[in-house]
Write a structure and sequence with these properties.
seven-stranded mixed β-sheet; about 200 residues
Length: about 200
């Protein structure tokens, strides 16, 4: 199998680096490595999602495809009296996210290796966040939308970032089939942030 950032065990030789990034007013240090998504810097879509997402102080949050952790760790800062669960199929990404949580002294998180939602099937969340793995294909992206629905509490919301050229119109159509209300909360540089409410 070709090695992707959504591989379970990336085979790329390690090439670790680190950088600091300000997210929602918090300077966070991130360690990254080869074989994970957007390792050189936090990608524009993730930053736009982080800057746009609404997270309440006590929310139970799920970050799907957490990578090395920017979205979930920023959410944990916002949900200071809540809890953030971060999941990714990529074992290397999960190890980095755990290291980044520890380094930034963020304790209201758990970070789990999971194939889509397999590890969190019996849980309920107020918010699900995802910058979906577009390169994994539309079927996987649509499964994230559909299989997230039953994990949301009534009134909960799925927040998604997606590029227009990578399928934002079809993503919105799929979300509208599944959720009570779908709102485009932000659009910038070809990226859309959708909030799909249960």
């Amino acid at each position: 199998m070709t090695d992707h950032y959504y591989s379970n065990r990336p085979q790329a030789p390690h090439d670790e680096r680190s950088f600091t990034f300000c997210l929602r007013g918090h300077n966070l240090r991130f360690f990254t490595d080869a074989g994970v998504f957007s390792r050189a810097r936090i990608d524009f879509g993730s930053v736009l999602l982080i800057e746009t997402m609404h997270i309440a102080d006590q929310d139970q949050v799920l970050d799907v495809g957490c990578g090395y952790g920017p979205i979930g760790l920023a959410a944990a800062k916002l949900a200071a009296n809540g809890w953030v669960t971060m999941i990714d199929i990529n074992e290397r990404a999960v190890a980095l996210a755990r290291r980044n949580a520890a380094h930034n002294k963020i304790e209201n998180v758990e970070i789990i290796v999971s194939d889509l939602y397999a590890a969190v099937q019996n849980r309920q969340f107020d918010v699900i966040l995802t910058n979906p793995p577009i390169r994994a294909g539309k079927e996987i992206v649509h499964r994230i939308f559909a299989e997230g629905y039953p994990l949301l509490r009534p009134g909960g919301a799925l927040w998604v970032v997606i590029q227009k050229k990578q399928g934002a119109p079809s993503a919105r159509k799929k979300l509208e089939e599944l959720y009570r209300e779908v709102e485009e909360v932000e659009r910038k540089k070809g990226y859309s942030i959708f909030k799909a409410s249960k």
